[in-house]
Amino acid sequence: MATTFKLPDLPFPSNALEPSISRTTMETHHGKHHAAYIKKTNEILAEKPNAPATLEEVVRLAKSEGDKKLFNNAAQAWNHAFFWNSLSPEAQSGPTGGLKAALERAFKSVDGFRDEFAAKGANHFASGWVWLVSDDSGVVKLVDLHDADTPITDASQKPLLVCDVWEHAYYLDYKNDRGAFLKVFLEKLANWRFAEAQYEAARSGGSDAYRFPS
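The structure corresponding to this sequence follows.
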């Protein structure tokens, strides 16, 4: 029996991020773009009866085998699900605890992190993602990856937080002003409690805190 995946529900109502992100954007982004990646992934997996049972392993296998079509769709399905969890309807004051300390070590301050994150996202050419990642020792850094690329194919990187910088993530609300979208993400939308849980999982050396729902 072929492996299949379902479109995960948003962790909040589609209008919960307004006015920062409109209901129309969320319904289009989740219900159209994300849903299409899930659908295409399942269509490809229908021809692969021995595919892994988890989306994480499907992504890693597609990468290792050079199956670009499967990788692009499966990785985008995973990245989007992680992005929804990186968003919070309630503004959070910022990181706390061990993650805050790690950001201060790497970027001098939390504001320094925000500045570098915003710059990396604004300067990223074309489509992709800006990720905050950690290694197993708790050292954090920023990576911007193109198209469907994802840190889960690199065993040395554990994803903590991500912002989608594909145009479909922001264009209906911000037009071509990606910088304004990144500013709102960092100041109002970033889910630091989720990032902190990811960080503690990375430091413990255990499995990732977030797994795509089966």
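The chain has a mean pLDDT of 95.
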